[in-house]
Structures are given as structure tokens and as C-alpha cells.
Amino acid sequence: MQPLSKLLEIDNSNLASVLRLGLYGLRTQLQQALKTAAIDPGSSACEELLRELDILLEPTTQVEFLSEEVLSVENNSLWEDVLEPVTGDELNLKHVTDALVGDSELLNYIGEYQFYSTNDADLWNEMQRLLLRVPEKVACAWRSRTLQEVSQVGIQEDRRCLSSLPFIRDELLYPGLTGKVKATGLCLSEEVDFDSRLMVEKRGGELDLLASVVSTCLKFIEQDSCLYHALKSLDRFGVRSLSLDAEKHKYIIALVERFHRVQATADAEPTTALRARLELDEAIHSLVYLPTCDRYSWWGKLQQEARRTLDAVVERARDAGYQVQIRPLWGTYADVFSWSRDDLQLDMGGVRGEVSACLRVYAKINDEVLPGRVLFRSS
Predict the structure, then answer these.
(1) Which pTM value belongs to this model?
(2) Residues 6+ positions from 240 with CB-CB distance below 8 Å
(3) Could you report the per-residue pLDDT of 231-240, keeping only the tens digit for each?
(4) Beta carbons of 325 and 364 less than 8 angstroms apart
(5) Tell me, what's the pLDDT at 67?
(6) What is the structure's pLDDT at 2?
(7) What is the structure's pLDDT at 76?
(8) Taking CA 296 as the corner, what is the angle to CA 162 and CA 163, rounded to the nearest 5 degrees?
(9) Which of 41, 126, 209, 286 can bridge 231 by disulfide, Cβ–Cβ 3.0-4.6 Å?
(10) 124 CB-near residues (< 8 Å, 6+ apart)
(11) Contact (Cβ atoms closer than 8 angstroms) between residue 222 and residue 24
């Protein structure tokens, strides 16, 4: 930190002013990130860094072109204006998002969420992606309320301007907007090809659903910075943010490779095929939000739909003479921990003492036990 201190102490230096602005911005970003980083091995180091930044940014010189009000660390909103200039126009959807994050019913599903979009079109999509994580009945009620609210300021829903995700059926996830605000909606479509990285075409078979789910996961990873992964083969000890390029790259490679392994073993010996499917199922379910999605949200149902395809593979193995059991792990953690290994504890969302997400099912093939893995809420 010594070279930084030396530059900051130089009076009337534009370079010192630029550095000070950058450090204020870094501190604000780290402070916000710490609020949402429930499980991160870098938390303590980050807190130490913030303390050093506090010492470093003690005002020893006066920055000529900034008022004392802007230099106030407590007023983060002013710093957002300095670091990321805005037009000065109030976002048309801000009152809706304020109401959403202020809803106590949603707090357990989305945590203390802060919207990061800076224009109405992005804000609409961010808000709707958030609703895909809560129980579908709650999400439907909020979408209806939202459309009623925005209609009062000259904004209408638009079911024609939609981004499409490849799937085995057509389904509207949420509409777009037209009028005073124009924004795209999102849908599932049979007409869209699977992600090119999967190197597979639609054939109407069992593999199509898995390709649909994996393609959807890959698309959301590109669009939603709130996603995490808890894939044991990549990191046994924590939940990692996919906003970090290194983690995103590792997870995408693992997800695509596991899909290709399922492809390659589709006609293989039944237990070989089952093992490949268990590995892919774990990768799909290890893509998580914090707090974790409700099981009856759109995201939860999508993952469950992929998991149900394991049943047919299990039956084929049984028909071939193997003794096979699989068991998704849900309920009280005390009742399932003997069936799992390397579980991860959360301090948010879900019900205390219960499983928040079943990352991997328990399986037994003849006498071989393959333990499951879960995220659970601490008691």
C-alpha cells in the first residue's frame, strides 16, 4: 500500500484524484459484495482489505473538483453517480422493484437483494429472473401486480418481443414491455437449436430434455451474475460465484463434458450409462442461487424435470439384473446426513435444520454406495 499512500499524499495531482476515485469505487463494490457473499473463503481477507482502504482513504488532502458531500463515504448513492454517470432520469420501474425487495414474504427466497441494472429494459429482465426463483404462485401474483402498476405510467406487456431458449416445448416465462418502456421477454421454444457447445440436434428422444436443460443453464450463466456453483469436482468446500470468469469457465467445461459423457454412454452397459447420468444430474443441480431457489419455483421445477429422467435409466439397469436404488435427499438434515457426504452449510434461505438443495442423489448399485450431497440450512 506504500506506493498508493505516496501518490494520494501529493497535493493538486490529477493522478492522485483519479486513484482516490477508483479506491472509493473499489471499497463500495467490496462492501456490497460482502453483503451477498454468504459463503466465500475470501471474506476475511476482503474485510481486512476494507480496513486498509479505510485507513488509506482518510482525507489528508482536498480534492478540488469534489465537494465534501461527495467525499462522504456514508453516501454511497452519490458515489454511484460519480463512478457510473446516469442520465438523471428516474427509472420508470424503480418503484416496482423497491416494492419487490421490500416484500417480507420474498425475503426468505431472494435475501436482501439489491438491483444493479441502470436502465428500465435491463431492470425488467433482472426483476423477472428474480421471480423465476420464488414459488410459482407467488411469482404469478407479482407479475400480475407489476403489469398493473406499470400500465398506469403508459407501459404495456408485449408477448411478441421475446428472447427464446431452446427447449422441447413452447412456454412463455415472462412477457416483454412496450410503450413508454420497451423490453424483451423470455420464452422456451421448440424452434431454437440447442447450444452449439453441446453438438447435438433435436431427435425427439430422452436426450432432448437434458440438452434443453443444459442449454438453458448455459444461457442463464451468460445473463445472470447472481448464479453460483457448488460442484464438488471443482470445489469440495464451498459455493463459488459464477460472476468470476475463472469459476464460470471451469463450471461450463464440467457441465458440457458431463453432457457429452451421457451422449457417449447412451447405448453403453446400463450401470455405465447410469453413472454418467448421475454425474450430469449433479452438475445441473449444483447450479444454484443464494438463497437457494424454492423447489416449487420455475428453476426448481426445471431441475426436478431433468432429475426425473433418472428413473428410466434406473429401470433399464434393473431390467438387466442389477440391484439399483436412488434417493433424492430432502427434509430434515438430521434424517439424511447418513446418506450424504461433503455437505455444505448455509446461513440463509430455506428452513433451519432442513435441506435447502439436493445437489446429488444417493445411489446404490449392487453393493456399491454412491453418497449424495446437499446444501442445508444451519439449525
Answers:
(1) 0.76
(2) 228, 229, 230, 234, 247, 251
(3) 999 999 999 9
(4) yes
(5) 38
(6) 65
(7) 44
(8) 10
(9) 286
(10) 93, 176, 177, 181, 183
(11) no
Cell 439424511 belongs to residue: 336
For the chain, the residue count is 379
3-state helix, strand, coil in the chain (%, to 5): 50, 15, 35
* Cell 485507513 sits on residue: 55
Distances (CA, A) of 261 to 6, 267, 276, 358: 56, 11, 6, 22
SS3 state at 324: strand
Return the pLDDT at 82: 37
- State residue 284 phi and psi, 5-degree precision: -65, -45
Residues in the chain predicted with pLDDT less than 50, given as ranges, are 38, 59-88
Widest Cα–Cα separation across the chain = 82
Q: 3-state SS string over the chain? A: CHHHHHHHCCCCCHHHHHHHHHHHHHHHHHHHHHHHCCCCCCHHHHHHHHHHHHHHCCCCCCCCCCCHHHHCCCCHHHHHHHHCCCCCCCCCCHHHHHHHHCCHHHHHHHCCCCCCCCCHHHHHHHHHHHHCCCEHHHHHHHHHHHHHHHHCCCEEEECCCEEEEECCCCEEEECEEEECCCECEEEEECCCCCCHHHCCCCCCCHHHHHHHHHHHHHHHHHHCCCCEECCCCCCCCCCEECCCHHHHHHHHHHHHHHHHHHHHCCCCCHHHHHHHHHHHHHHHHCEECCCCCCCCEHHHHHHHHHHCCHHHHHHHHHHCCCCEEEECCCCEHHHHHHHECCCEEECCCCCCCEEEEEEECEEEECCEEECEEEEEECC
Cα 62-67-70 angle, rounded to 5 deg: 105
pLDDT at 274: 97
Residues contacting 290, CB < 8 A, separation 6+:
36, 38, 39, 111, 226, 228, 239, 346, 348, 349
